[in-house]
Amino acid sequence: MNAQIAIFLVQDGLTNGAIYALLALALVLVFAVTRVIFIPQGEFVTYGALTLASLQLGKLPGTAWLLLAAGIAVTAVELAQALRLGAAERIPGILFKYVIFPAAVMGLAWWAAPLKLALTLQVLLTLIVVVPLGPMVYRLAYQPLANASVLVLLIISVAVHFAMTGLGLVFFGAEGSRTPAFSDAHWNLGVLTVSGQSLWVMGTSLALIVGLFLFFEHTIYGKALRATAINRVGARLVGVSPAMAGKLSFTLAALIGALSGILIAPITTIYYDSGFLVGLKGFVGAIVGGLVSYPIAAAGALLVGLLEAYASFWASAYKEVIVFTLIIPVLIWRSFTTHHIEDEEE
Amino acid sequence: MSLLLDVRDLCVTYGKVEAVHRVALSVKEGSIVTVIGPNGAGKTTLLAALMGMLHARGSVSYAGKEITRVEPEQRVSRGLCLVPERRELFATMTVEDNLVLGAFHRYRKRDKAITADFEQVYQLFPRLHERRRQLAGTLSGGERQMLALGRALMSRPRLLMLDEPSLGLAPLIVRDIFRVIAGLRETGVSILLVEQNARAALQVADYGYVLETGEIAIEGPSADLASDPRVVESYLGLVAGNTEKAS
Amino acid sequence: MNRARLALGAFLAFMLIAPLVLPAFHVTLLNYIGLYSIVALGLVLLTGVGGLTSFGQAAFVGVGAYTTAYLSTAYGVSPWLTLLLGLALTFVLSLFLGFISLRLSGHYLPLGTIAWGISLYYLFGNMEFLGGHNGLSSIPAISLFGLALDSARKFDYLIWTLASLALLSMHNLLDSRSGRAIRALKGGGLMAESFGVDTARMKIIIFVHAALLASLSGWLYAHLLRFVNPTPFSINAGIEYLFMAVVGGAASVWGAVVGAGILTVLKQWLQDLLPRLLGQSGNFEMIVFGVLLVILLQRAREGIMPLIVNRFPAPRRPLPATTQVLPKRARPAAGEAMLEIRNVRKVFGGLVAVNELSFAMNSGEILGLIGPNGAGKSTVFNLVTGVLPGTGGEVYFRGERIDTLSARDIVPRGMARTFQQVHLLPTMSVLENVAIGAHLRGSKGVISAALRLEREEEAMLLAEAARQLERVGLGGHVQEQAGSLALGQQRILEIARALCADPVLLLLDEPAAGLRYQEKRALAELLRKLRSEGMSILLVEHDMDFVMKLVDRLVVMDFGEKLAEGLPQEIQTNPAVLEAYLGGVK
After folding, report:
1. CA nearest A290 in C: which residue?
2. Are strands B57-62 and B65-66 parallel, antiparallel or unpaired?
3. Which of A231, A233, A239 sits opposite B104 (nearest CB)?
4. With left for phi above 0 and alpha for psi between -120 and 50, is residue C331 left, alpha or beta?
5. From the list C486, C545, C578, which residue is nearest B242 (CB)?
6. What pLDDT is recorded for position B1?
7. CA distances (Å), A123 to each of A41, A52, A70, A108, A198, in order?
8. Are C365 and C261 part of one and the same domain?
9. Could you tell me the CATH number of the domain that includes residue C67?
């Protein structure tokens, strides 16, 4: 390996690592706020990438149908609850959020898909279709079990992952897709060739991380999410409902997931089940941070990206083995730095 | 004076154990009502149920409306507020952010008076102003209780429920806290006070209930309770023993 | 004959005849259900009973399958030997993985299992000598006493014989001293530790046990199909195994068979139906499995098994008869030094919970530790019993320094406790709950339990539990579920459980809290009786009336420090105590 290849691999690793870092942040966020280990994060990556790919082909993405169906399911659940609590005043809001809005998005996608709009508009449309699925998934699968143990929530996560992967297959088929790069530009800096796409990925990731930081530090909703993560009972007592916090964190996670998919789709071919492995690499990073520290999780994810880049150069067949085996030294290290055996949770 | 809180037939069960059994109590607008009783009598459970944090059977009406099935978050925005025994502060956030979150539902309604309320809370507890940039977890026990009260006041409560506000505090600070509680009534806040410090509670309250093994055993105006031989024997027993020996 | 036995008999008869009469397709299905049941059984133990989870069981199945596939094809090693080698390899691997992830809090284990589940899958697919993604074929058939099990029908008997043995041994294990400790892991870890159960070790044991069952299933799989490739050992297969265990539920070991049966048949049906419905091919059954599981966990978190078990009420089991009695430790002479606390300190973060506290008590004494809520009494308890490490100071028990010991090492020295919040296992019987207290008075482990070689010791442990229940007056409730007792009885149960540890010092944390007047009187009566039998008792209590009439001496705490010490009458007139209890508002 010469220096040029080494530097190329660093660039490659950091580009993927930036995406893993975003996913790691979303996973830490969701876990801290809701105690959900969000395995289906990867499916949002897939849905983001493949929805955009469908739009590029001028086809109506199947996810728009899913949004409509999920909306109707949420409507049924919410209406039943409103009637049980005798809260009829909620009905118009429910109908607007979960019937009219998804139907409008569906209509928009139907109209816009064949037009093959500019890339930016397609990206925007992709986000409008995919992101609302986040809070809906929370409402349907997790909210009824908000007090369950981490273990039960994890099994739910895996079940949701199963269902969403299968739906991905229905909507997008078994064929993989790749979307065109945001930028074909290349710059030569000495031995290093910097690609425009890498800069896009890293720039967007950085902007999103700064955005998240500002959101958590300076907005009342950001503070409410932090409060829920620190003390769930305390948060309820000041009027922050766990359902609201859950939906908000799932919205953010879906946004991050879909954006990651949009960023990664030009770099690698995405199949209906690719998101799972992408998301899990974010997880390896998040576990480095103990699922609590945002900066360490992001750093861990960058490390995963670099390791993967070098592994695919040296032993490409064993790439996944090497990346996922990284978790073993991490667990060893954590088990020797954690001194107490935690009692089972309530 | 009208009834702000009217509770009837309230039952709370954990698994198969009934922790609160057919409790009836009421709080008049602008009054202080105390619930006293031994550890394990169900006082904390009672408050948690009134806040909606636990599932309960029976009826709870607040400000003339039935709220038995209303979620805790909605109770907060209607002016019901609980300061729990464990304070439940946001330990790794600043004092100021804790207070900001106390007014969470008011930010959602874009309430303009929030800034003025900050001033008021800081005036009431100057220590919190000094420490507003500090993390809540670094405060002393007394300061934590002040912050818990301050956070509750930021929600502009109509009915404030306090669970053992004197717990683990030095006598001097207990005195301060009780002075604040008595002062709150002057501003129109009604208070439901759960205390193990029965004597202090009965001194500040208008009306009192004695809770024993989940049921109301005795009730009456505070002055009557403080001299009721059954209360004296059970909760002020130490003094009774003392006076007997002294006499 | 009760209904449960009839059902068991019908099951065995079916298994005996089915391979002879069913069409080939159904025999194949039955074979798979058997293979999956063995894996799911491990997960019922791990997840349903123990509260731990693994998504990586398919990888352990793969280890068993590939070990025998490789060794029997490349070197012609006998399948019976490769079974042992596969189990040995799985043992080492699972011990290592369990050791590094079980020390961490709950969610690291499942995440770890996903990661190495994927790693092993890719490893199987990329290793040249394992045939890569094409796999290994021409695996020899197993022969048993010269009879080659070379057809699905013949093999069925092997699978279901082993599956039945696995079920039986698991059933035996759960109904034993070790089984009680395992069942305490979910929801009673702290309590179990304080009666000497090594919970970390128990977790590793059940993790390894589940892995070994998976490996056994893999060995069977390889010799049934006579061919292996990586696909059935993927992470998705691992997830399906967990689904089987969850669907079946942990109410009984049969949950594994029920779960495996339902999912196998359902999958078969859906794989036929869905592609026709959707007009394309693919694993669409994933969608249905995912949605079904979400609904199941929301509606019936315990799985399907409880619905079935309730139709077969278990007969009331008489206590096993035994004439032997567990040995008891020597009682100390009255007045001998029992417990001494010297300058003990405990700091939480910046908060001083206990500050330079010293006191001592002698044998045969009831010492009350009182003080306002938040004074640090419970912290003292946790320091003495070894639940919390102290920040400074020393604790001596019968002359031996114990503040450096863990909770588990203190119990066998003759100290036992109750908890302020009742810690019991609500779905276990009163008798079994109390028997956990005697954990350290038995010694038989998991293997002898699975093989039923510990019946004598088990009878002695249960007899001891029954004796202690009789002693505290709960003799009439032995077979009831602990969760159905009233709070007062639950507190008494805790005392019986503590007595089962054969202590010379009892530590009771607010035993009278929440009790009714009559219950308090009965409790005081019981404690007096225990004292008259030579028991020493350290009592944290808040109810003055109760304490003053019962104890020999009192230590009063306030703000983590000792405020006063003396006879009840002295304390009642002590001005400092009065100030602490009543001071504040004047």
Report:
1. C108
2. antiparallel
3. A239
4. beta
5. C578
6. 60
7. 19, 6, 21, 14, 18
8. no
9. 1.10.3470
A291 and A330 Cβ atoms separated by less than 8 Å: no
C303 plus C342 within the same structural domain: no
Q: Could you tell me if C354 and C268 lie in one domain?
A: no
Contacts A–B by Cβ distance under 8 A: 68
C327 in a domain, yes or no? no
Contact B238 C349 (CB under 8 A): no
- Domain containing residue C423: 337-580
Biggest CA-to-CA distance, chain C: 95
C92 and C194 both lie in a single domain = yes
What was the ipTM of the complex prediction? 0.91
Residues 106-145 of B with CB under 8 A from A: 107-108
pLDDT band at B9 (very low <50, low <70, confident <90, very high): very high
What value does the mean pLDDT of chain B take? 88
Cβ(C550)–Cβ(C524) under 8 Å?
A: yes
Second-level CATH architecture of B3-79+161-246: 3-Layer(aba) Sandwich (3.40)
pLDDT at B245 over 90: no
Suggest the residue from A237, A240, A292 to mutate for an interface test with chain B (most B CBs closer than 10 A). Answer: A237
Cβ contact, residue pair B92, A230, below 8 Å = yes
pLDDT band at B2 (very low <50, low <70, confident <90, very high): confident
Residue A249 burial (10 A CB sphere; 0-12, 13-18, 19+): buried
Question: What residues of chain C lie within 8 A of the CB of A148, using their CB?
Answer: 297, 301
pLDDT at residue A147 greater than cutoff 70: yes
A interface toward B at CB cutoff 8 Å? Answer: 85-86, 220, 223-224, 226-227, 230-231, 233-241, 244
CATH code of residue C396: 3.40.50.300
Pair C377, C448 in one domain: yes
* pLDDT band (50, 70, 90) for residue A96: very high
Average pLDDT of span A97-103? 96
The residue ranges of chain C whose pLDDT is under 50 are 584-586
Residue B235 has a pLDDT of: 65
Side-by-side strand order, sheet with C337-348: C351-362, C337-348, C392-397, C400-401
Touching check for C584 and chain B: CB below 8 Å? yes
CA atoms of C515 and C508, how far apart (whole Å): 14
Give residue for tokens 């809070």.
Answer: A135
Q: Does residue C511 belong to the interface with chain A, where contact is any CB pair within 8 Å?
A: no
For residues C411 and A121, what is the distance between their CA atoms, to the nearest angstrom? 69
Per-residue pLDDT, averaged over A49-70, amounts to 95
Query: β-pairing, A186-189 with A192-195?
Result: antiparallel
**Residue C106: predicted pLDDT:** 67
- The verdict on C364 and C256 lying in the same domain is no
Domains of chain B, by residue range, sit at 3-79+161-246, 90-156
Contact C155, C79 (CB under 8 A): no
Sign of the four-CA dihedral B145, B150, B151, B156: positive
Are residues C450 and C522 located together in one domain of the fold? yes
Contacts of C583 in chain B (CB under 8 A): 171
C136 and C64 in one domain?
Answer: yes
Does residue C576 belong to the interface with chain B, where contact is any CB pair within 8 Å?
no
With vertex at residue A265, the alpha carbon angle to CA A263 and CA A271, rounded to the nearest 5 degrees, is 140
Beta pairing, strands C415-417 & C227-228: unpaired
Q: Check whether A102 has a pLDDT greater than 80.
A: yes
Q: pTM of the full predicted structure? A: 0.90
Residue window 51-70, chain B: list those with CB within 8 Å of chain A: 51, 53, 69-70
Rounded Cα gap, residues B144 and B137, in angstroms: 8
Q: Is there a contact between B46 and B33 (Cβ–Cβ < 8 Å)?
A: no
Task: Domain count for chain C, please give it.
Answer: 2
Please state the φ and ψ torsions of residue B221, each to the nearest 5 degrees. -55, 145
